[in-house]
Amino acid sequence: MNNLEILYRQVIMDHYKNPRNKGLLNDNGYKTIHIKNPTCGDDITVQSLVEDGIVKDVRHDGTGCSICCSSASVMSETLKGKKKEDAKKIAETYINMLTNKEYDKTVDLEEAVVYQGVQKFPARIKCASIAWKAFEGTLESE
Amino acid sequence: MDPYKLKKDFPVLSDETLIYLDTAASSLKPNQVIRKLDEYYEKYSVNVHRGVYNLSYVATEMYEESRKKVSEFINADFNEIIFTRGASSALNLVASSYGLNNLSSTDEIIVSELEHHSQVLPWQNVSNITKAKLIYVPLNKEGRITIENFKKVLNKNTKVVALNYVSNVMGYIAPIKEIIKLSHEVGAIVSVDAAQAAPHKKIDVKELNCDFLSFSGHKMLGPTGIGVLFGKRELLDNMPPIEFGGDMNDNVNLYEASWKEVPYKFETGTPGIAGAIGLGAAIDYLDNVGLDEIAKHEYELKEYTVNKLKEIDDIIIYNESAETGIISFNIDGVHPHDAVTFFDGDNICMRAGHHCAQLIIKWLKVPATLRVSYYLYNTVEDCDKFIESVKNARDFFKSVGF
Q: Would the pTM of this model clear 0.80, i.e. be above it?
């Protein structure tokens, strides 16, 4: 299988076709961040609900390519139920991994680790990181 | 013209596996242009219009010689050619200088959803500031600007018509000459975005009788960072500069100053000297090949490709009837950004996205499109490789579940 095939065969298609935690909630407890990539049209909104230092819920909605949309879904599953600090660490590690920076390999990225393959397609790194950046934004706006 | 022979002039194409289908974004540059840039940097890389020494005289001569070439290229007068940073800054100059100083709340500006952002946004800004009304020509069902629809929005309040000559997404040629004639009948001026026209078809500004016309160097084999604004002399004479500084002034006093004649009052600061000189070399190159030949070649490649694409299932073409070398399409169910990564894997460079023209993408009701644009260095083998890649892309994405 070539790199592209590996990338798409794995988690991406499953989450693209059957996104988890999709759809936003009209609840003031949630922090909401909207990020758009105007050059390609990716447009993602992410919500997080943090209670007692735990990320109780992560929601997402938007339009974009398969890498963008699936990564939002994978992210929501990965981060839900994590301690806020751990979620922050995972998001930071994930983005460092994508952008070929040094990252802490002891952090368990769970399913999100498959996006490591995106490294081989530098033009797509933005697609895979936009939802995660939005999530980081929701924590900052806490 | 012989594209196989011309290809050899383009160093980027020395990688024979590379298929370049993104000329509408930027063309490749031939050795003749690159050498001209080197010549400037190696032999007379000094400022223009300032030095009283011989080298500066040489640089100035070369810079102004290019202005002459540009003026002949579009049949304008020498002083009607303003060098800018690109088509975007040329279009902005018209809006900021002419628009902001001549329009008021009772006036109307006609634009269309087929415009590049660099044509529509400057006038949106003028409209917001002056309260002049921004009016959109309704597009026909193909997405074209037609005379019939243009007449529906043109009236005695129309003061500015700002439209494209060739659409960068749909590749349609607008009936711009007729539009100009009709606009003049109601006393409106016309600013033509010719960024996708100048590289591919002969333009005669006197025959068109346009008031302003803008284009970029880098889309027509020239360097980046250089563009052209043509404006009718009497209009330019009455327009204020929008940038102030060195070289554009005549007499400078403590509280007022006067400006040089056109075009120089619009060219402050050290201009893109190398770029302008390189653009001259690009014009020579295009003249040698012949624009009519180039247009015919691109259109033939486009027709060939469209006919083959139509035989492939799940391909949606948005501009089948285009008269130029641009094809906008999608693979059904596959986001263009996913598709373009596949093409990239086959070393095919093409565009996916909004193409800096969100209004037409919204009009098409799609998230984005794929775009192929041909030029003189493309061959029928490029088309075949591209078509093969489209088939493989379609099969691949279907196989993984799209």
A: yes
